[in-house]
Amino acid sequence: MAPKEPLVISSKDEMRKWSRAMRCQGKVIGLVPTMGYLHEGHLSLVREAHKHANVIAVSIYVNPGQFSPNEDLSTYPSDFDGDIQKLMSVPGGVDVVFHPHNLYDYGIDKKNSNVAIEGGKMVSCIDQGGFGHETWVRVENLEKGLCGNSRPVFFRGVATIVTKLFNIVEPDVAFFGKKDYQQWRIIQRMVRDLDFSIKIVGCEITRENDGLAMSSRNVRLSTKDRQNALSINKSLLKAKSAAEDGEVHCEKLRNLVLQCITEAGGQIDYAEIVDQENLEKVKFINGPVVLCVAAWFGKVRLIDNMEINLKLDLRK
């Protein structure tokens, strides 16, 4: 059977028409939101979507709303034609790719366009005044801490663009990778709090054969930095093993991670053990937690995490 070539839609109205036509046929619609430059991790989300939905939409859109002024939007890698070929390689493929040009352009004030060029860099300018975009979605507590410390506008941008995609694509179920653990929990909470009739499925981290968590940013690592970055997964495994052996003091587990990564030349952004649901820091493991890490290797910031689910004897 020949690979299925997806329908490519760029118009919001056309996307809604497609989804509503599918729903009229009784189809369950799955959505896999992405920023493109797809890798095996993204494709694993598509394969998972086939287990839950009759038709699948993949969005490819680099969202300027989650980039701060000091982050160069133009450096985010892209390969749209390659992405289409990768999606066609998945058994069953996908039905539609939603690839809008600009989800913040309302055709009112052309001075407040999606991006601007400053100092040779493409930067987001959607916060400017006039009739530009000014409505944002925030999940106030969950967005604090972890990635929220060093990227203060990131989750505001994520929650807003996902809300827009949900309103445009109108899916029944949506799929998010758990590598971006804080993002996944934020979307879950947003869907609950705003009464979206959408099921959110969190999918396990996909790793390279050597343990490095798959990321579109990995391509920017030098050979040396990529080798050193393996210390992230090694440190997580080391800490999880120590916890399973009885070490429940979180600071001691955290120090294992810090030592492993810094000895490999990494610069720690954060390494925290938090509750899996509310993402609050814990001092001792007495329930399901997740160890979350962000570290720089060279000029590339990588994130990873590992859930720790100990079988605790609560009778003690």
From TrEMBL:
Gene3D superfamilies registered for this protein in UniProt: HUPs, Pantoate-beta-alanine ligase, C-terminal domain
Q: Which UniProt keywords apply?
A: ATP-binding, Ligase, Nucleotide-binding, Pantothenate biosynthesis
**What reaction(s) does this enzyme catalyze?**
(R)-pantoate + beta-alanine + ATP = (R)-pantothenate + AMP + diphosphate + H(+)
Tagged with keyword Zinc: no
Q: Does the keyword Endoplasmic reticulum apply?
A: no
Q: Which Pfam families match?
A: Pantoate_ligase (PF02569)
Q: Where is the signal peptide?
A: none
Q: Which InterPro entries match?
A: Pantoate_ligase, Pantoate_ligase_C, Rossmann-like_a/b/a_fold
Report the EC number(s), separated by commas if there are several: 6.3.2.1
Instruction: Give the metabolic or biological pathway.
Output: Cofactor biosynthesis; (R)-pantothenate biosynthesis; (R)-pantothenate from (R)-pantoate and beta-alanine: step 1/1
What family is this protein classified in?
A: Belongs to the pantothenate synthetase family.
Q: Which PANTHER family match?
A: CYTIDYLATE KINASE/PANTOATE-BETA-ALANINE LIGASE (PTHR21299), PANTOATE--BETA-ALANINE LIGASE (PTHR21299:SF1)
Q: By what name is this protein known? A: Pantoate--beta-alanine ligase
Species name: Stylosanthes scabra
Organism placement in taxonomy: Eukaryota, Viridiplantae, Streptophyta, Embryophyta, Tracheophyta
